[in-house]
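Appendix C: a fully annotated inverse folding record. The material below is reproduced so that readers can follow the format used throughout the book. The structure is listed first as tokens, followed by the designed sequence.
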């Protein structure tokens, strides 16, 4: 259904007040941009952008970067918009879910998307057979993760670990690491990482991603 910009959607689920889509919409309107002009600047369809602003789509990191570049802001500003006080409590509906372009079956959800500190919490879901790739990741910082369900093969440098529910790994993120789900059900884990790896715009290693 086509809507004029600024109208509140009348069908489906209402947008999350502090969802990623609403943040993007605020930034777009603050710059006097229409969905059409943003579509022209990003190459993304108007319908996709409209659904994204209603938090009906889960954008990839690359898509988010394309949009914030067109808006002239950074991912860090997007998540840490100064017009709201620092969030202490994040409800399930306020989480930010992202997928990674080029990596099928991997979804990560920011559990503290508006935290202004040096700790980032993330829920990582890896579909059966999915992996982070054959090339290990490295970046600055430290990280720790605990597997909640499923099973996950994890490599830190050349050492292989088969993680079962309840197993926890922690290591310096400069050590090459990668993962793969060898099971038949999704592997779900919670990770803590410092410094934050998803919000700063200059991150190149991308950690788990």
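Designed amino acids, in order:
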């Amino acid at each position: 259904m086509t809507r004029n910009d600024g109208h509140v959607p009348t069908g489906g689920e209402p947008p999350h007040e502090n969802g990623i889509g609403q943040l993007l919409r605020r930034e777009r309107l603050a710059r006097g941009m229409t969905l059409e002009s943003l579509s022209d600047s990003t190459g993304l369809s108007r319908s996709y952008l409209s659904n994204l602003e209603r938090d009906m789509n889960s954008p990839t990191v690359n898509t988010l970067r394309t949009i914030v570049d067109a808006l002239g802001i950074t991912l860090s500003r997007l998540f840490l918009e100064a017009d709201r006080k620092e969030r202490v409590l994040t409800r399930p509906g306020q989480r930010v879910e992202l997928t990674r372009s080029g990596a099928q079956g991997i979804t990560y959800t920011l559990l503290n998307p508006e935290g202004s500190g040096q700790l980032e919490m993330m829920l990582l879901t890896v579909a059966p057979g999915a992996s982070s790739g054959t090339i290990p990741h490295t970046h600055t910082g430290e990280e720790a993760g605990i597997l909640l369900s499923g099973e996950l093969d994890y490599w830190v440098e050349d050492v292989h670990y088969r993680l079962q529910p309840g197993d926890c790994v922690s290591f310096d993120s400069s050590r090459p690491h990668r993962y793969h789900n060898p099971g038949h059900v999704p592997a779900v884990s919670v990770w803590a990482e410092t410094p934050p790896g998803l919000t700063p715009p200059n991150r190149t290693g991308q950690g788990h991603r």
